[in-house]
Amino acid sequence: xxxxxxxxxxxxxxxxxxxxxxxxxDKPELLAETVVRCFGxxxxxxxxxxxxxxxVDEGREGGASQKFGNLFLDWTLLFRLxxxxxxxxxxxxxxxxxxxxALHVWNAIAERSRRQLSPRHAIAILALWKNRDERNCISETxxxxxxxxxxxxxxxxxxxxxxxxxxxxxxxxxxxxxxxDGVIHxxxxxxQERT
Length: 195
Prior knowledge:
Layout: E1 2-3, H1 7-20, H2 28-36, E2 39-42, E3 51-56, E4 63-66, E5 71-73, H3 75-88, H4 98-112, E6 114-117, H5 119-130, E7 137-139, H6 140-153, H7 161-173, E8 177-180, E9 183-186, E10 188-193
Helix pairs in contact: 1-2, 1-4, 2-3, 2-4, 5-6, 5-7
């Protein structure tokens, strides 16, 4: 099931769309509004929603947490609206821009949803992920042991208790994990890339 965007979200998308419409295009607001009408929000999943963490070379090259949320772009609707824009706009050369404007808006959203992780944070999340249980959980104590094991294996010094606590706090702030009663719950899918 899809939901309409909030006015704040819609306004943000509209601003992104207007930024990429070339000068001299007739009715840029119409083009932007057409593109934005094709975005919507998906209903929340019934099971836990995993987002994505990418770790490069076992974390030695860092990583990134990607949070697209539940935003989607309906390309079918976008291409169905092209004839309306052709008939409404005073210039026939602007409708071909619709897919490119939509792609740019999508890329802007994707870029803002990406948060870089330092190598030490990437190694920590990878260690937690590889040693999680079937509920995607690991104890905070076991997490420290595994993080230090992975740090050492990758040529880094072990994390002190204070540094580990700061790493866990950062990962919580990034909404990658939750920590409750000494148990870490990993909320994102962790994948490894090789360079």
